[in-house]
Structure of Ammonium transporter:
Amino acid sequence: MTTEVFANESWMLISTALVLLMTPALALFYGGMSRQKSVLNMMMMSFGSLGVVAVVYVLWGWSMSYGTQDIAGIFSNPFEFFGLRDSIGSSEAPVISKYGYPTVIEVGYQLTFAVIACALISGALADRVKFGTWMVFTALWSTFVYFPLAHMIWGGGILSEHAHSVAAWMFGSEDGEAKVPPVDFAGGTAIHISAGTAALLLAIAVGKRHTFMRTAHRPHNLPFVMLGAALLWFGWFGFNGGSAHGAGWTAGLATLNTTCAAAAGILGWLLAEKLRDGHATSLGAASGVVAGLVSITPAAGVLMPVTSIILGFIGGFLAAFGVALKFRFKFDDSLDVVGVHLVAGIWGTIGLALFAHDKGIFTGDISYGFKLLIVQIVVAALTMLYAGVITAIIGFVLEKTLGWRVDCAVEHGGIDAHVHGETAYDALGMEGK
């Protein structure tokens, strides 16, 4: 084994652990933002996603996402590598991925992306949905939304840079390759735009909490929120840096850009808060971290540090105002998934065309950058369309079969005590009061 291969294997294993940490970190982040009577339920929705999606990914998710038997450019045959059959080999004869390290490492890495993508949606549904319905939803959504999107964008499908690119259709092709391939370095479309779109559709379909816009819903534990944001930032180094698929210059650039964008996201959000409300809050700082991270995700490998600061700052600023959309349009996105992940995800996906190194509209190539901008807009729109339609279908089927809402009394008294039979704080007692 060469030193380079060993370094790449080590970095990808570390990145896998970092991205896995993001789901428990999200549980803390969302849990702190929830009511004290439903904090455990909110955290359990993240852990439930971890349990369900990890299992289905091994069974058919990897095959649907990265199998070789493409079906209409949308997904791969789920039975080709069912249960990872014939896809990872053994210690004596490992199957090697296209990146030069064993495929079993890549499977573990991609599994963690599938988990966090689904868990993100839960923040839009706080305080009011049945835990069992949520668990079934995670299996269905990952199967019919995330796995196909992963295939379309990264696995050689219709939105990937390798085959049948949107850019090739729009601007022609040269020797079978797209002149202006779409860019999604680490998941702006497949994860943040898709999860944000799903959150919007479900928030509307499931309906508002009974106290939405009648009672102030304040985070019950801001230290939880800030700790969760800090751990998400830490895990994001694997999310973005690991998407370089090796321990080299690109991984270094992606991790540096991640720090720059997250830091600038704090500043952008706090400025927006100060201008709008007159206060710069700890919740705003934590949310700004996440907005900056979301913004840089699709662009981490194609921007430079200074332009990452610009992208992250604008992302934080836009997301801070984006969270107010739920009050303007009266949909109950409980923990601001739409404002943070959809708004910042769209901005990062489109904004990278402005600042891509040597190829962006403002950074060296106006003609190429303009074409890339159009491509990125189209890909973002197609992602929203696909995720929105399939999520709406899944949500409708579950409403007609299992039902989404808990009883009004359960919502008022707190899901923790009524559904899980426990409370987060002993002082509340088992009545959840």
The chain has a mean pLDDT of 93. The first strand starts at residue 70 and ends at 71. Residues 420 and 429 are 13 Å apart (CA to CA). The chain has 15 helices and four strands.
